[in-house]
């Protein structure tokens, strides 16, 4: 019986593991190696580690956890339930693990635009988060990708980083008169034509080629297409979700299920590595305090 099972070994899960390991708790982390930012060349906006590669950051975290005797299993968790006073976790190899408390730190997955040429530039000159990659794209000719009305907010936001912003709705025309006036007032260009493909070199976007043959010079792209949970364990356990598919938590990362905590992108807050790590730390402290109360004689 573990004190705590943590599912997800990204920044949220590992920082929870660090606090709990340092609190001398018996902890295991399960991770199947798909951190959300694995496409990115750099992890920006984390004080002291700004610009470090995401892999280097996670490798360093794993190394640091060794001295606190936190087990890390490179395995996928297939199911999780609460039964007879314990969380019961099954990995995909059929092994059953039990714990007193459980942390879900399983993160989100981005719904990626279906565009030819996208994959080789994703994480290098195509991004979704201006706080992560806006600085590196400053003053560039920025394309914002969002079908229907999804890209309006992102396009307006990108004016913070560049004067040259164009919103591409890729063949959809749901922008109304007010939207168009707002975008025009803020000097955002709009292109509603369908995109044929993206063209670039060594990961750097150079132009967007439209289906009618027009070629438009662009140097960076930001997209706004939504996210989904990386796995369905939150649903299996009966967590409450927001209308956007994010798990609802309270101040110290508690979910609506007693003993179950959720940290990182999977629950509601700013989606940055430093915030995910902080939420993991909060969950770790809250769980340790809960265990202390249960153990007090
Ligand atoms: C392209 C890109 C670039 C980004 N750049 C930045 C940046 O520069 N700065 C920044 O602060 N943020 C950046 N982000 C956001 C950042 O990636 C997230 O905020 C952060 O990774 C959230 O951490 P997390 O621990 O919640 O989830 P994740 O890092 O996604 O980790 C979740 C882990 O859980 C594992 N997992 C999921 N389900 C299971 C299961 N059933 N069994 C076992 N393991 C499971 C996954 O394999 C994964 O390793 C970027 C995101 C993207 C997509």
Q: What is the compact description of this entry?
A:
The chain is built from eight helices and 17 strands. By secondary structure, it is of the alpha/beta class. The protein has two domains: 2-110 and 227-295, FAD/NAD(P)-binding domain; 118-223, FAD/NAD(P)-binding domain.
Overview of this structure, please?
The chain is an alpha/beta fold and 297 residues long. It folds into two domains: 2-110 and 227-295, FAD/NAD(P)-binding domain (3-Layer(bba) Sandwich), CATH 3.50.50; 118-223, FAD/NAD(P)-binding domain. It has eight helices and 17 strands. The strands form four sheets. Strands 1, 2, 3, 4, 5, 6 and 17 form a seven-stranded mixed beta sheet that branches. The protein has a five-stranded parallel beta sheet with strand order 8-15-9-10-11. It has a three-stranded antiparallel beta sheet with strand order 12-13-14, with no helix packed on it. Helix 1 runs parallel beside helix 2 and helix 1 runs parallel beside helix 8 (273-295). It is elongated and about 70 Å long. The mean pLDDT is 97. It binds flavin-adenine dinucleotide. Flavin-adenine dinucleotide is lined by residues 7-13, 30-37, 39-40, 43-46, 76-77, 105-107, 110, 123, 129, 132, 230-231, 233, 264-266, 271-274, 276.
């Amino acid at each position: 019986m573990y004190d705590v099972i943590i599912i997800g070994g990204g920044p949220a899960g590992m920082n929870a593991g660090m606090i709990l390991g340092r609190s001398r708790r018996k902890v295991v982390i399960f991770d199947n190696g798909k951190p959300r930012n694995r496409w990115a060349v750099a992890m920006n906006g984390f004080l002291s580690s700004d610009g470090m590669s995401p892999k280097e950051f996670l490798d360093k975290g794993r190394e640091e956890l060794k001295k606190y005797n936190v087990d890390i299993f490179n395995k996928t968790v297939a199911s999780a339930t609460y039964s007879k006073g314990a969380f019961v976790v099954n990995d995909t190899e059929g092994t059953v693990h039990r714990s007193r408390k459980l942390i879900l730190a399983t993160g989100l997955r981005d719904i990626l635009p279906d565009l030819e040429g996208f994959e080789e530039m994703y994480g290098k000159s195509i991004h979704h988060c201006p706080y992560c990659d806006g600085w590196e794209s400053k003053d560039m000719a920025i394309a914002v990708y969002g079908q229907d009305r999804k890209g309006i907010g992102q396009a307006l936001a990108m004016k913070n980083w560049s004067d040259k912003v164009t919103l591409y709705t890729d063949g959809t025309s749901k922008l109304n008169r007010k939207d168009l006036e707002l975008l025009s007032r803020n000097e955002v260009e709009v292109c509603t034509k369908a995109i044929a493909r993206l063209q670039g070199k060594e990961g750097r976007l150079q132009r967007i080629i439209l289906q009618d043959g027009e070629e438009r010079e662009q140097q960076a792209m930001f997209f706004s297409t939504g996210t989904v949970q990386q796995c369905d364990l939150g649903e299996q356990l009966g967590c409450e979700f927001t209308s956007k598919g994010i798990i609802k938590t309270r101040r110290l990362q508690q979910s609506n299920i007693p003993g179950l905590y959720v940290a990182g992108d999977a629950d509601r807050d700013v989606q940055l590595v430093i915030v995910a790590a902080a939420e993991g730390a909060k969950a770790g402290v809250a769980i340790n305090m809960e265990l202390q109360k249960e153990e007090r004689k």
